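Sorry to interrupt, but I need a hand with the structure work. It will help me judge whether the discrete encoding reads sensibly. Write everything out right here, beneath this request:
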Amino acid sequence: MTKNMKKIYAGILTGLALTFPLGALLANAEEPAGESSGSDSHAASDESVLNIASVSKMYVTAAVMQLADRGKVVLDAPVTDYIPDFKMADERYKDITVRMLLNHSSGLMGSTYEGAFLFEEKSTDYHDSFLQKLKRQHLKADPGAFNCYCNDGFTLLEILVERVSGSSFTEYVKENISSPLSLDHTGTLWDTDPDRLIPVYLNGNVKLAPAFPQLIATGGIMADAEDVCRFGTAFFTGNDILLSEEAKREMAENNNADGSQPAFGLGWDDVEKEDYEKAGVKVLSKGGDAMQHANLLVAPDQKISVAVLSSGGSSTNCEEICLDLLDVALSEQGIDIVHPEKEKPELGPVPDEFVRYEGLYANTEKTMRISFPDKRYMLVRSVTSENEFEAQYMYASDGTFVEVSGDVSSGKAIPVQPLNAYLFEEKNGQTYLSHPEMGGMLIKTEGKQVDESVQKAWERRNGAYYYLVNASASDTSYTDNNRMKMCTSTEAPGMVNGYVMLDEDHAAYDKLIPGTASRDISDLRMERVNGKEYACLDDLGFKLISEKDIPVFADDVTAVALTSGEACWYRIDGAKDVTLRLDIPENAAVYVYDKYMTVKYASFMRGYGTGVPLPEYGMIVFIGESGSTVSIGR
């Protein structure tokens, strides 16, 4: 457990649902719900809820399967049958079926993030503009070609449920899921009291204002662990409160289109967990990470549902706890799950046949070089990456390459723990570096020869950071998803980050990696407006300004005039013992970052004093609407 996991709520249901903070659950399963360890002043109550992030996808999946049970939706019918105004700048969209949205094989680019998560704001803008945004997009792959986790597909399903049912998604969930299951602490931003939300934390212990996910079916359900557990019972064998046995069976089938990992079901992230399958136990899993985190595990035949929710940490932490709880519940039924430790790999020199895999590899963010120095080990080194790094891997007898630390040449290198292994795969004429459980991570590329003028145009941007400008004042993107760095290298001609240069102002991905590595992608477009350069990731909904066009925050700046859709950034350069007094108007926000881009101040922090001390070096951004001004005193 990490110190960042400020609040963790766990529930386990095997016929009776109980909700506990983690500490109470491990110490005494009869203690009532309360606050976990830590001194935070927000006391949990029976009414407290968290955002369950992408576990929300199971609720819209259940809704679609209900409609299918009622004969109102056919899973293999085109989405356009139910949403006639769904259109894209790619004729292949007509081939997307409802099932492809449910199993992440639609070929959609991934996620539209602009306006997806907002502090203290409830808006229909994200929902109402979603179809219009898709009209500008192309597909990244043929529908049904391979599975790649996709948030936008579930927002489309939300709209589908509304069109078919004639009610809002919030109303549908309340009437058709929450009411039948008596989920009294489940809702969305439209029917949940903000005061019931467990706080969001930044940097481990800084409390923020409530954050409302606007993409409700994708990641916007609010609930407590008991309700999530009770929802999980709807997938028990023999439980027909929500769904038919046929619907649950279809959801639990491995829907992987090309045999790679993970084993997606319909809605479920994973429907085949090896250790449990060997014991004859089917386990279904769904995790989620947004501003808060969650995991739901269901063993349908054993009638066990486990949920862990946290504010801080990650869904991986939540799943680890869920699996431990699941093992306890199974043991009580006489089923002991064996989790064999991985055998210590036998490491040795690289066989000759692997030398052909040397070269450049890329994913959606970076270009790497793989080499085999003297065939002693594999070296993976960054070429165009925001963070420079290199890692060593030694060949193992099972055909994988295991990450090691230490000096390989001295024979003292040892495997990194936990074991981190990769293998080479050749599919459909492409070569991938893959993870045994997560699928393809990098794809072999030779770069691309481009005109000298094109290469030089991108090289002039090399090393420059670009900062988010188009998100609204309440957008949570300013907390962490706020910049990108342009990276080129003479080692990878024609490449910028993981993109291939098309011309002086456009770059795109020319090769896709089946699986999660190609999620949430966008082509890259550069534009100049009023002498300033911007990087545009249109498919993600981001526009970012070059640091070369950002001025220093000088002592004589006493007010900043705000402009809608154009955040105003400054560089903090050499500030010493400077404390600001900010007069921030409504619908505006200010963020201060240190030189590592760690948020030191945000308008949405709770309990912050009136003075805002500046770091010696860093950034400050002002966001708001045209016609308003932030006044600055020192």
